[in-house]
Amino acid sequence: MRLPTKRTVSEIDGWRRKLETSGNPGLEPVAGNLAGLEELLTAEKLQPLSQLLTDEGCSVTEAAERYTTEGEAPGGRG
Q1: Domain contains 27
Q2: Most-buried pick from 34, 35, 47, 77 (CB within 10 A)?
Q3: pLDDT tens-digit readout, 49-68
């Protein structure tokens, strides 16, 4: 299913804000990458997203590993 860009950006913005206000420093890189994704999607020329998506995947994996090893919940409720 392909979402229209405007709706996609709105969804990304909502998740970015949730992560930024979570109080969990481990989620800051994920929020930053989502902000970058928003910028790329709203730019006049779409640039390759592969590096940004790779970085986002690494950030999410690192946050999940911290939760698994340290018991730090993604929302800072560990």
Answers
A1: yes
A2: 34
A3: 667 777 788 888 888 888 77
